[in-house]
Amino acid sequence: MTVLRPSLGFEVCGWIEEFLVHGIGDIQGQPVELDDEFRGFIWRCYELTPEGRRFYRRAVLSRPKGRAKTEIAGMISCAELLGPVRFDGWDAKGDPVGKPVTSPLVRCFATAEGQASQTYDTAAYMLRNGTVFDEYEVDVGLTRTFTTDGGELVAQTSAASSKEGGKDTFDVFDESHLLVLPQHKKLHATVTRNLLKRAAADGWSLETSTMFAPGEDSVAEETYKTAHKIESVLFDHKQAPLDTDITDDVALRKALCEVYGPAASWMDIDGLVAMFRDPQNRESDNRRYWLNQPWTTEDKFTTPNAWDALADPSRNPEDGARIVLALDGSYNNDSTAVIGITVEEKPHVFVVGAWERTPASPVDWEVDILDVMETIRQARVKYTVAELTADPYRWSLPLQQMEDEGCVVSRFPQTADRMTPGTSRFNDLIATGGMTQDADPRLRRHVLNAIYRDDARGKRLMKDKKGSANKIDLAVAALLGLARAGALMSEPEEFSHVYFPSDFIDAQAEQAEQAEQVADADFAHVYGRPQTSAEKPVVGWLSQQMAMAGREQQ
């Protein structure tokens, strides 16, 4: 049973309803009527010790997406700037009386400047409208608001590197489940530490969040753990029952109404049910965003049934077919894979080559790079290879050599900005049956080993953990190849990249001899004599090898 302590919450709620209007949205400008759920949260936030100090130094409001968390944060920010939010004694009935903070400094933080402005813009709209505009003198700007007594409300990005020296009295961290980077956590620790600098101001912080993904170690998750250890941290969380059968529309609708509480009357519950039925929406996302459940985003990238349904070895390409080759390379620990992808409306994925350490491999086992390159060469003989795509990390020299041999190479660094859309395309093709695969058990194992992680840098195909024995290299190569094959579908096929080693060697040898003849003629013209061997320029290693190979063939 929750014990309610004396609180300024009743007075704060009264101030909000008297002076503020709803922020930007469908009911903007209308008077605020707080529902019982939010009224109860504000009461808890402003509970007091017997000495009149704040009981909670930090508070978290965890609710599903669309539950007006940002609006509540904006209302409390306005109250912290102008309202009766600090203890000023007890009245005749023994109830606490509030007063405004002297020279308040209120900051609204988020993962990016645009997100921070959502909380600030909500508060700014409220301050420009309603009774508060008539009763208080405030100078409302795009990112800062000033009061006549030195108070300030600021939109502040969490991307800022340091906030040491601040004298904040109240801070808001909007969507703290997205604060996962080291700089975010450092900033959060610094800001909450700064709140102790002004003892008389009795500062505190508020986080709003949908439920975090366990294991991401976000600020929200760390606060949740702290709340179970420290009594002065309030984590107000509401979720749907974990045993909800989300495949049953009646059960799902009931769970959504329960978790949204009073807001269920104006939320589009039927639309949310439809979100759960959309095959492009992942279960983990639906559970976290709409049911507010602590559901890990380290889901398997796909299921055995979904992958096996795409098996069609009959579509393995014939000789001369236009394909992309994708290489995911390693040296000694991870596997190395060369995957082929047909360049067509419905791409087909097939294994060209795979090199993998086995339990029987010697300790000093390494990938045979020469064998990998020869496999690529043989594939170029057999198929029309539009390009070879690969992450150049540690493979820049082999890729350069393939370019020197006439192969078109597309470099695909595995950065988040590339892997996120690549993962999305791979996932969509599986979900919609927009591709087929060759039923190779190695590719199947790697695809099923992969997880689907969602963090601040986007949703990406990854290993289950760093250093895991569950390899995913063939899946990564398939992802790279599908991304490039899709891009090539929108580009004209200007020329063929069919590879004929003997013709290539003859051409290289002829070019080398012609270059040598031109150089001899130029030297003789300038100096009146032929060059000696020592004076002749050294041509590239590959050109030398090609020239030698050409002479040997002759």
Model description:
This protein is α/β, with parallel strands linked by helices and 554 residues long. The protein has 4 domains: 9-237, Rossmann fold (3-Layer(aba) Sandwich); 249-295, no CATH class; 304-489, 2-Layer Sandwich (Nucleotidyltransferase, domain 5), CATH 3.30.420.240; 501-553. Helix content is 39%, strand content 17%. The chain has 18 helices and 19 strands. It has helices at residues 9-19, 36-45, 69-82, 113-128, 131-135, 182-194, 219-227, 249-260, 269-277, 283-290, 304-308, 369-382, 396-404, 416-432, 441-449, 473-489, 501-527, 541-553; strands spanning 58-62, 86-90, 96-99, 105-110, 138-140, 144-147, 152-157, 170-174, 204-209, 233-237, 299-300, 322-328, 336-342, 348-355, 384-390, 409-411, 436-437, 451-455, 458-462. Strands 5-6-7-4-8-9-1-10 form an 8-stranded mixed beta sheet, with helices on both faces. Strands 16-15-12-13-14-17 form a 6-stranded mixed beta sheet. A 3-stranded antiparallel beta sheet has the order 11-18-19. Helix 1 crosses helix 2 (36-45). It is elongated and about 105 Å long.
